[in-house]
Structure formats: structure tokens, C-alpha cells
User: Fold this.
Amino acid sequence: MAIHVAIETVSKRFPAKGGGLLVLDGVSLEAQEGEFLSLIGPSGCGKTTLLRLIGGLEATTEGRVLVRGLEPREVQKRKEMGFVFQDPSLLPWRTVHENVLLPLQVNGGRGREGLRPAPTQGDADALLATVGLQEFARYYPHQLSGGMKQRVALARALVFDPALLLMDEPLGALDELTRSAMRYELLRIWETSRKTVVMVTHSIAEAVLMSDRVAVMTARPGRIADVVTIDLPRPRREGIERTAAFLDAVERIQRLLMTGGYGGPATGRAAARR
Amino acid sequence: MDQPLAEPRPADKAQPRAEAGGWRRAVRTSLPTLGYLVPPLIALVIGGVIWELWVRAADTPTYIFPRPTKVLDRFFGDLSYFWRHGWVTLYEGMLGFALGAGGAILFAIAMAASRPVEKGVMPLAILVKVTPIVAIAPLFTIWFGFGSFPKVLIAAFLTFYPVLINAIVGFRSMNPSSADFLRSIHASPAEIFFRLRLPSSLPYLFASFRIVIPLALIGATVAEWFSGDRGLGSVIIVAHNNLDMPTLFSAIVTLALIGIGLTMLLWMIEKRLLFWHESNLAR
Assistant:
């Protein structure tokens, strides 16, 4: 398998009094083509920063990030990445349909140098159907529930059919019931396209359920403690959380987080049940 | 497996409100319905009757305090006169508002983009704000003559500062994740401004307009006291000098009507443009 995202000894320092705040310290990590990779770690460990570096929203202090051999800014230009944030960040004055069309209107709907042909309205409609919102195309965001808004954000990120999907705690703002249903919804959508995904999450169970590999980070300054391969069969469906393999993976990540300075609950099994 | 996870409330599903931003809805929801209109009208009529009876009973001379019937007589007896002068004040005030608000928004854009510009402009803006308008109105007459221009300028000065402050806050109040998303699809700063910053600032801009439109009318009126023979300000001064109270009160009534009309117009535009904002969703 080819490498899609290569993070090469990346450090990130934010300016602050007394020399700056070192958030990431020599992080190296790779995401394979078509892989679902999760980043997990204690609060403030820099996992969101790492995702923003991949997305070209921040610049590295040292090291570099390459996406299929290109700088992230170049990938933005080619519309080869989709970003989903914890906040759905829809434009409230646009309908669902208009929000999904937004990326097609920016830069006149092309990669700036016309590197990619623009998708059509029909593609946007098909995407809304994929996320189960075709009936709600003409609604405004304030008329939707939190889970529905996040699905609009997902459709918006996918409208250019990017090869890389970056998600920063996409389900973090949802209530527990919606959240667990949305995990399977996300999985289902991902399984139809098999894009490369890098997802930041706080939930061990979520990371294990969805990922091929989980990168566990240490407390600040963030380093990669270990990368855990999740050996669960796909497609993954309801009930998989109760299998021994699932619980083993949860416990392994739990242990890594605790040695990395994470003051979480004592046992992995307790965490998995939450 | 392709079922929506969180169904919307049944009411929403029954009628997709596709026309959420339509003019008709704006008019329907913003025109003060009878419930809003009737109580103040009743209060007004009661107040007018008391005023009438009191002035009659006390036998107060008209040149000190006119009866409402005399005011109404004067007002409706020469509607075109008050409309003509009212139009001048309205036009001066609104031109000043447009000038002041437009300038403030342009300055706010520059200030949001550049710290040095902000540091340079802000003290001047505060200077404009703290200088009493009555202190500069006579000066403007000397410099700019007796026409409309000095009045427009005074209205613009009064408009400038509140709009500037709100525009600066408004341009900074965009959702940071929305900005990040736009950047992630390679939107230019100009595109982020027009697609996100400007619409996000509209609630703040309209809040300032609500303050500033009456101010612009006051500015134009006061400026008319000092020079010229057009506009309700000059009508008021002349009537005052002649102790012609019915005319003076009629000019005040005209000003009040213009103010109410402008406020309602602004309200409707706001409903139309800001249907998505919390302030309009709450009701």
C-alpha cells in the first residue's frame, strides 16, 4: 500500500512568553492510502494541531508534512482534502443544499489552476442522499438537529470527492445516543468509498470501532507513544464492542494512555462500557 | 440502514420552510401586529384628550402650549408644507447615515485587516465621537455654506462611531471553524470576507443602525437650526422665534412619524436578512 500522508519528524511551537509553547515534538507518522487512522491522546497533547498541520491550516516549526508528495497548501488548492470540525461550522444563512454547494462556489468552483474538473449540482444532491438528508435540502441549519448538521458538514467536505478526509472530533459535540448511532453511520459512508481518513477523537471506543490503526499520543509536548493496529474484521457492525478482540484493543490503548500521563479510569473494560 | 438518525420535530417535517427568508414572511412578522399597534394608540388618544382638556381648563395661551386639536389642524391643514420640509430633513439625515455608515464600514475593514491602521484611526474616531455636535455645526456653516452639505456632514459624523465600533466587533465575530473550512478549500481572504465575515457582521451592523438612524435625523435637524431655510430644523427655529407653537409641534409630529417609518423599515429589512440569527429565532 502506498503512503498517503507522511508526517516527517514534525515539531510545532506556538509563540508564547518565555520561548514559546512546544506542542508537538518530533512526531513521525504515516497514513496509508485508504486507511482509517485515528489520533488519540490526553487533552492538549497536540492531536488537533497535528491534524491542522496535515490540513495546511498551520505551518510546521520543524519537519514537514507531505500528502501524496505534495505540500498541504497545494493539496488545498487541488481540492484533494475534506475537513470536518467538531463544530459543524455551516453558514447559517444558507440552506443545507447551499452549504453543500459552498465548496463548488469558492474559487469559481475549480482548483485554482483548474487542476480538477468541478463536480456538478447532481453530485451534491447524490451526496445529500448518501448522508440521508435529501429531504432536508431546503432546510436551514437552525432547523436541524446536531447530528444532522454534522452530516451536512460531512457532505460538504466530500463534495469534491477528495481522496483525504480529515476529521477533528466530528462526533464530539453530539449527545451519547446520537453519537453512537453516528459512528456506524460514518463507518457505513466510509466503507462505500474507502477514502483515507485521519480522525482526532477523545473516545477510545470510537477509535477502536472505526480505525484500522490508532496513533496514541503522549501528554504535551505531544509525541507518538505507539501505533496500535486494530485487527477487527470489516464491515464492523453493532455488537462488535462486546467482542474480546475489541476489548483487548481498548485495553491496550488505555494502558498506553496511562503510561503517557493520562489520568483516565483504571481499567479498559470500564472505559469500553461507557 | 439508510434512515435518518435524528428526526426533526414533526412540525418541521410537515412544512419545509423553504421560504424562511421571504419578504412576505418579513412583512408578516415585523409589521407590528394589532397587538403592538393598538395599546400605544389608545395611550396616545387618552394622553391627547387629557392634554386637550387640561389646556382648555387652564386656559393656557396657544403661544405657550397649544391644544392638540390646534396642532392637528395645523398639521393636516398644510400637509404638503411639512412633507416638503420633512423630506429635506429625511434626505439629509439618510444621506449622512449612508455616508457615515459606509465610511465606518470601510474603515472597519481596514482596521480589521491591519493593527497600525486601527491604532491610527481609533483615537481620531473617539475624537469625532466626544466632540459635541453643537460645537461644530456653526463652523460647518461657515465652511460649507447654507445648503444641505453641512447637515449631511453632521449626520454622517454622528453615524460614524457607533457603526465603526460594531463593524469592527462584527468582522471579528465569525465562526472560526467556518473560516478554517473555507481556508481548507483554498478560499482567498477576500472570499472569506464576502462569504463569511460580512454576513456574520450583519447582526452587529443592524444593531448599530438602529441606534444611528434616529441620531442621523437628530443631527440633520440640529444642523438646520444654524443655517438655511429648508428642513424641519429650520421650521422649528422659525416657529420658535414667532411663538408659532402649532407649527413647532407639527414639525415635531412630522419628525416622529419619519422616525417611526424608518425604524419599521429597518426592522423589516433586518427580518429579511437576519432570519437565521438567534435574535430572530427566539420569538
Remarks:
- Residues 130 and 192 of chain A are 10 Å apart (CA to CA).
- The longest strand of chain A covers residues 3-14.
- Confidence is low (pLDDT under 50) at residues 262-274 of chain A.
- Residues 88-161 of chain A form one domain.
